[in-house]
Amino acid sequence: MFDELVQNPILEVKDLSVHFYSKTREVKALDNIFISLEKGKVLGIAGESGSGKSTLAKAIFRILPYNARILKGQIIYKGTNLINVNENDLQKKIRWKSIAYVPQVSMNSLDPVYRVKSQMLETIFAHEDVSKAEALERIENVIKDVGLPSEILDKFPHELSGGQKQRVMIAMSMLLNPEMLIADEPTTALDVVIQAQIIAMIKKIQKEKNLSMIFITHDLSLLAQISDIMAIMYAGKIVEVGKVEDIYYSPLHPYTQLLIKSIPSIKNRKKKLISIPGEVPDLSDPPQGCRFNPRCPLAQEICRKESPELTRVNGSHYVACFMVGGQ
Ligand SMILES: Nc1ncnc2c1ncn2[C@@H]1O[C@H](COP(=O)(O)OP(=O)(O)OP(=O)(O)O)[C@@H](O)[C@H]1O
């Protein structure tokens, strides 16, 4: 699908659909999702709240909640379809060792009754048979990598600031030397200065370790700073994919254009902000045709009837819109 954009993929999600079920509703959270992550690069995924970003991250890491069902699709990681891997093998070979995950509320996922060092030792020993001296050396290294002093290791989580906790979570995710990292809104709860520092630190680690990374946020300007390739999600669909310069500076999909116009710019304070009209649809009853059609300034008859496929428009820029690129 993304041959012109990604030459050496470590991960390919193909035609993935995930629904959530309750007694009364079926939420169509992901619909025919295609993404591809180049080895050693950053794929940034953006979209408004409820567009399905976290569901996609959880599907890849195979930690969807019990009421979710993968209806179809493939998640190909280094040649293996993760959907067919059993829980035991996922635990032993994939999760943390190969793919690490820093979830959205991770700042609160440290155990309050153990010091940082004990939690890190436990993580290593749960997966690898190494000596305590070797484990401690590894811990010292990752703590240094995330810019924290080693005294942090003897503290309890409540003794740390929000930014320090998040750095510890990122250090934890690096303990088993993964090849790939999924970071889901890792800085959302932090103030902007700390956010910027943590983003810079993540990018430095990504480069140094040649990590392949999926970075998720609703903040497009932040995403443009950290990503090589960007994918825009809307209501459970990928609507646009391309290099950062194409998506951020020359967006083609009407949704991406509105999303960019709706974010404030630090560089251009006089920029006129536009809010996207209407609301994100209820995914238990998404609009027929293109899911963006009720809010789209360009919508025509076809957009209300048929769902546009992601199509290469020029060079390595992919868009799902009937009004762009002569679909
Ligand atoms: N466990 C669940 N049961 C039912 N519906 C769910 C569940 N988890 C998520 N959803 C629904 O799936 C859709 C996608 O949610 P998701 O959390 O993936 O979006 P998101 O883009 O990550 O949003 P945010 O930025 O707010 O985290 C939403 O309509 C949400 O209400």
From TrEMBL:
<dbReference type="InterPro" id="IPR003439">
    <property type="entry name" value="ABC_transporter-like_ATP-bd"/>
</dbReference>
<dbReference type="Pfam" id="PF00005">
    <property type="entry name" value="ABC_tran"/>
</dbReference>
<dbReference type="GO" id="GO:0005524">
    <property type="term" value="F:ATP binding"/>
</dbReference>
<keyword id="KW-0547">Nucleotide-binding</keyword>
<dbReference type="InterPro" id="IPR013563">
    <property type="entry name" value="Oligopep_ABC_C"/>
</dbReference>
<dbReference type="InterPro" id="IPR027417">
    <property type="entry name" value="P-loop_NTPase"/>
</dbReference>
<keyword id="KW-0067">ATP-binding</keyword>
<protein>
    <submittedName>
        <fullName>Dipeptide/oligopeptide/nickel ABC transporter ATP-binding protein</fullName>
    </submittedName>
</protein>
<dbReference type="InterPro" id="IPR003593">
    <property type="entry name" value="AAA+_ATPase"/>
</dbReference>
<dbReference type="Pfam" id="PF08352">
    <property type="entry name" value="oligo_HPY"/>
</dbReference>
<dbReference type="InterPro" id="IPR017871">
    <property type="entry name" value="ABC_transporter-like_CS"/>
</dbReference>
<keyword id="KW-0813">Transport</keyword>
<dbReference type="GO" id="GO:0015833">
    <property type="term" value="P:peptide transport"/>
</dbReference>
<feature type="domain" description="ABC transporter">
    <location>
        <begin position="13"/>
        <end position="260"/>
    </location>
</feature>
<dbReference type="GO" id="GO:0016887">
    <property type="term" value="F:ATP hydrolysis activity"/>
</dbReference>
